[in-house]
Specification:
Length: 354
């Protein structure tokens, strides 16, 4: 890296860090206020809510970094343009593509930070925060109302999650014949992992269908040998947007193997990749603006433009997400639309400036 590269990179990274600090401070405040309606339930106190919010901070940072990078680059490069540093660089013969290359170095550094947040820190801390909150609020009562549908051979299972490692809520067991006819329906009040793919069902009752009649039984206990671990089942119950890429790919392969619909996981998987790569274009997009209309604009005007572009990118991702299932559209194509539009806009404007 040359001195000029380091100068531009330092300007972008410095303002991006400042923008992220402001965005995360606002996020903490809003998130903490949102948690107040749960304070007082069980042992969940204001201090517990603050810990929960802080443990979810890497996930929020991962979500906000593309926006923060765009605004930070706009402010950092805008300050260089207003101070005539970029004008001097261009007057000395430096092409716009060379300036964009320097900005891209900063983008790659931020991209690496995004990968660390999204793959190493955020999913683990968010999951730990969820279990901590559930344990303090409900003490072994099911939380979130969430569950998962999974398939294992001729069994279709619907499981409700509970607080505690390997401890789950009620389980519905649908037993199918090789011709996909319903042989039996069972329900367990509690489900626990017995280790080595063995599951212990308590409070179990079953209705088995025969050609002549329905046989009802309530043995109270049943043991299932499944190819599902407690960890995998917990992944299936998690929000796809909060899972790291390896977990999402595992769930995609599982759904494909068992003839289930993998589209929500496909969208989340490719959306993570597309969102991360979008940072590289986000730091270059401000260059045409700061060399043109926003060259002499104040910080407030650049901040407003950055917020408008960043929120537009963020909202577009949120708006197209339901289209994966509701409109039966290609999840891979939908996941890449916001980043593709950002790339086309960035490269098109850079070409015009040059």
């Amino acid at each position: 890296m040359t001195i000029i590269d380091r100068y531009i990179v330092r300007a972008i990274l410095g303002t991006t860090a400042l923008v992220m600090a402001v965005l995360l401070a606002l996020t903490i405040a809003l998130f903490f206020i949102e948690e107040q309606h749960d304070v007082g339930q069980g042992n969940y106190t204001a201090a517990s809510a603050l810990v929960f919010v802080l443990m979810n901070l890497p996930q929020r940072a991962w979500e906000l970094l593309p926006i923060g990078a765009l605004i930070g680059a706009l402010l950092g490069l805008g300050s260089l343009a207003r101070g005539s540093e970029l004008t001097v660089l261009r007057s000395s013969g430096m092409a716009v593509t060379r300036i964009a290359g320097s900005a891209l170095i900063a983008g790659l550094i931020l991209l690496a930070v995004e990968v660390i947040l999204g793959e190493l820190l955020a999913p683990q801390l968010a999951e730990a925060a969820k279990h901590l909150k559930a344990a303090e609020r409900f003490a072994d009562v099911s939380f979130g109302g969430g569950g998962a549908w999974v398939r294992d051979g001729n069994l279709m299972l619907n499981v409700e999650q509970r607080a505690g490692s390997g401890q789950f809520g009620s389980m519905l067991v649908f037993e199918l014949s090789p011709r996909h006819e319903l042989n039996a329906i069972g329900r367990a009040a509690r489900t626990a992992s017995g280790g080595q793919s063995r599951w212990l069902l308590s409070g179990y009752a079953e209705s088995r269908f025969t050609p002549e009649r329905v046989l009802a039984s309530s043995d109270g206990q049943r043991t299932l040998d499944l190819a599902l671990s407690a960890g995998f089942l917990a992944l299936a119950m998690s929000d796809p947007q909060q899972l790291h890429a390896r977990a999402l790919w595992s769930l995609i392969q599982y759904d494909r193997t068992n003839a289930l619909d993998p589209r929500p996981y496909l969208f989340a998987f490719w959306s993570r990749i597309a969102r991360t790569l979008a940072i590289a274009f986000a730091v270059m997009l401000p260059i045409p603006f700061v060399l043109g209309a926003l060259r002499s604009a104040g910080t407030g005007a650049r901040m407003a433009v950055g917020m408008l572009l960043g929120l537009g990118f963020f909202m577009l991702q949120r708006l197209i997400e339901p289209g994966t299932v509701v409109f039966d559209l290609n999840p891979v194509m939908l996941a890449w639309i916001p980043t593709a539009l950002l790339a086309v806009l960035t490269l098109g404007l850079l070409a015009r400036v040059r």
